[in-house]
Amino acid sequence: MRALIVDDEPQAIALLQGYLQHFPSIEVAGSCRTAPKALTALQSQSIDLIFLDINMPQLSGLALARLIDTRRTKIIFTTAYAEHAVASYEVAAFDYLLKPISFERFTQAVSRVLREQVVQQGPSPAEPPEMITVKSGANTHLVNPIQIGYLEKDGNYLFYHLEGQRIMARQSVAEALATLPPYFLQIHKSYIVNVRQVEYFNKLEISVQGRKLPVGGSFREDVLYHLENPLR
Q: How many CB atoms are closer than 10 A to CB 16?
């Protein structure tokens, strides 16, 4: 997946570039400080995802968005102004991030983009059973992700909870989400769950492997939507 960052503030561009380093499946194709330059970039190369500021000189982000084919390029608005949220829906924006953008909220938005990409592409009928590698100290574990119930963040470590086994990895939540299949969902800054192992859920908690896990307030709307419409 190729991404373009469009913002008239160099610090804002640098922040998103830093965040995107945690998502190896996303290539930063470039950055632009004006909408006309961004339009030229969109016309000259294939861009799958654009992070787009709204208030910019010459041409606003909303005006640029009306020129973008959202069937080919997903738009995530990045702005300091909440009042443009309604207009963002009119141009079929994928998400709307308010500045200052936290890494937690950014991860939530990008993970949704990556999950949707996997669903649209569909599985290959010739694919072998999916496996992932989890490095724990000197050992590297080969794990079938369907066996993972949930992941738990504790300090600099991430714990993979499987039936009868727990694997500790020095890894960030973003790094884990980048390698896990689309049926994994972040529900809290410290928890990721396997949707296929959810026993019950409500707006406050989710039960997996007999453990009640909290749903974070900033994740609630996205979590409820995806659990009510699970990817199978």
A: 21
pTM across the whole model: 0.60
Per-residue pLDDT tens over the stretch 16-37: 999 998 888 899 999 999 999 9
Given a contact cutoff of 8 angstroms between Cβ atoms, the answer to whether 78 and 101 are in contact is yes
Query: Percentages helix, strand, coil for the chain, rounded to the nearest 5?
Result: 35, 30, 35
Residues 6+ apart with CB under 8 A from 197: 148, 149, 150, 208, 209
- Which two structure tokens, joined as six digits, stand for 225? 């939507």
The structural domains of the chain, ordered by start, are: 2-121 (3.40.50.2300), 132-228 (2.40.50.1020)
**Contact at 8 Å (CB) between 32 and 38?**
yes
Instruction: For residue 136, give the amino acid letter.
Output: S
| Nearest in space to 76 (alpha carbons), one of 48, 37, 49, 102 | 49
